[in-house]
Every structure is written in C-alpha cells, then in structure tokens.
Amino acid sequence: MEGTKRPFHRPALVGAVVSLLKPERGGIYVDATVGGGGHARAILEAAPPDTRLIGIDWDEEAIFTARDELEEFGERVILVRENFARLGRILDVLAIPQVDGILFDLGPSLHQLVSGYRGFSLHADGPLDMRMDRRLPLKAADIVNRATEEELERIIREYGEEPKARAIAKAIVKARKERPLGTTLQLMEVVSKAIGKSVGQDYIHPATRTFMALRIAVNKEVEQLKAALEQVPGRLKVGGRLVIISYQSIEDRTVKHFLKEWEGRGVLKILTKKPVVPTKEEVEENPSSRGAKLRAAEKVSEEG
Ligand SMILES: C[S@@+](CC[C@H](N)C(=O)[O-])C[C@H]1O[C@@H](n2cnc3c(N)ncnc32)[C@H](O)[C@@H]1O
C-alpha cells in the first residue's frame, strides 16, 4: 500500500504451523487471520491439491493483499472479510458444518503496525485510530478523549501491563482538558512525559505498552478471541487440528485456559505441552516473530 515495497507481513513459526495443522487429502482449513496470506500460502503449498482454505480477515487491506498473494490457488481459496468471532456464521453461509483445521495468528499485521495512517505506529505520526477493521465504531481517539480516568487506568494496566498506568491515565485526562488528543504523536508525548522517559532512552519506546493496551481495547481483542474459541470445538471434525499463535500474555493465558478446559472435557487433546516459540535465529531474521507463542490441539471426540 502507498507505494511501499515493505512486505505486508512476515509470518512467524511457519514450519510449526504447517506440521501441526497437518493438512491432508480433501481437507478444508480455516485461516481465521489470513493477513497477507503468508501462512495460508505455506499451508496450501504443503497440502495435497484437493484441499481448500477459507481465509478470514476483517481488514479490507488484508483481504486485497491475500487475494493477490493466493491468486494462483484459484478455487481452492475462499476469502471472507469478517470478524473471526463470527466463525460459525461464516461456515454456515458456506454450508460447511465442520473443518479439518483452524489457524489463528493473533494481533495486528506488520502492515497495520507500521502504516502511519492506521494510527498504530510509534514511529510515524498519524490519526489516533488503531482499528484493524475500519468499520468498528470506536477509534483510539474516542477512548483517549472520552473514557474516565479510572477506565483509562484499567485498560492501560490490564491490557498493557503498564506499571505506570495510573500516572499515564492522569496525564491523559489533564492533557485532553486543554485540547483533545487526535494524533499518535500527541499521545506519545503525553505518555513519555508521564513516565518521565524520553524516546530513545530505553530499548523499547516509552509508549509501547500504552499503545498496545489501547489497540487491544479498540479492537476488543480478548472478547473477539473468546467468542471465536467457544465456536471452535463444535466446528472441528474429530481428528481436526487447532493452531493458535499469540503475542500478548493476556491472549496466551486465554488460549491456555481454553485448551485446558476442553481437554478436561475430553474433547480436545493438547499437542504442545509447552508453547512453541521462535528460535533466536528466526527472531533475528524476522523481528516480528518476537514474543510469538504457538499452542495446538487435536479434537479427539465430539462434545458430550
Ligand atoms: C498477525 S496478522 C496475520 C498474518 C498472516 N498469518 C500472514 O501470514 O500474513 C493478524 C491478522 O488478523 C486480523 N484479525 C485480527 N483480529 C481479527 C478478528 N477479530 N477478525 C478477523 N480478523 C482479525 C488482522 O486484521 C490481521 O490482518
């Protein structure tokens, strides 16, 4: 987009995704976060030619990119611009009751994170937006300018795990009394001042945790994930596989809890006793894989 040659996304843990999803003859696979189509391509290339893939993403820029990237696979691919929390509905519309594998590669794509105009970036000024799907009703600016100080503190502490959440919330409320915060740069300045650190002083940007927290709140990431996971056991065939990559501890905790609960019910069997993480070499080669944690499970029986 915008004339850049930067990749849309660089998928993490591709080898583990393909080997754990184990695509087999005649299978139907869902990539619930198709993004730029990197994982989807690897799955389709590794899979027998009669397998099909349903790629879901709620960002129209992702769907456009995936359409180009996966064009050569023709009718093996169906792309749907939707929230993955509507997984069941998407499959119903396609008249597919159950599938052989489902992949979630959570969080934003590299494209979303670095494109200044999307409002996620700590390195480019832009509107305080942060919606992965631009049909969502609330932008980051709405939360920053309208939430109570207590609500801001909760969001920043809970989703960003930011120890200075209280000071940051206070500083935001003080700053917005003078004028509403409308850009990423304005917010970065307020946060950096509240923390008492300037940009470049530490390895990570002082506003990193606050930006992450707002992004999770704007996109209701934890709620969407929980809503999607609830539908997974019923939508997998027995023998079907679920693979989830998360990057934030709140997501990974949600996934771990979900897998344990359904293993306890005798429906899923966890395939990864410990999460699969990228090697040092992968992180060096692909910095966006940093922090990735992959967990996988197989459906072993129908729900009781
Ligand atoms: C980390 S990227 C996936 C990249 C992809 N695996 C690839 O190889 O290019 C995550 C993608 O999931 C999408 N996404 C996040 N939450 C979503 C949701 N609730 N519904 C649909 N798509 C979602 C984002 O828009 C983003 O494009």
Describe the structure.
The protein has 304 residues and is of the alpha/beta class. The chain folds into 2 domains: 14-111 and 221-299, Vaccinia Virus protein VP39 (Rossmann fold, 3-Layer(aba) Sandwich), CATH 3.40.50; 137-218, DNA polymerase, domain 1 (Orthogonal Bundle). It is 43% helix and 14% strand. It contains 13 helices and 7 strands. The chain has a 7-stranded mixed beta sheet, with helices on both faces. Helix 1 crosses helix 2 and helix 8 (165-178) crosses helix 9. The protein is globular, with a radius of gyration of 20 Å. The N and C termini lie far apart (48 Å). 47% of the residues are buried. The mean pLDDT is 94. Bound molecules: S-adenosylmethionine (SAM). The site of S-adenosylmethionine has 22 residues, from helix 2 and strand 2.
DSSP E strands, number: 7
| CATH topology name of the largest domain | Rossmann fold
Name the poorly predicted regions: none
Q: What does the overall shape look like?
A: globular
Compose a concise summary of this entry:
With 304 residues, the chain is of the alpha/beta class.
How would you describe this structure in keywords?
2 domains, 13 helices, alpha/beta, binds S-adenosylmethionine, DNA polymerase, domain 1, Rossmann fold, 304 residues, seven-stranded mixed sheet, 43% helix
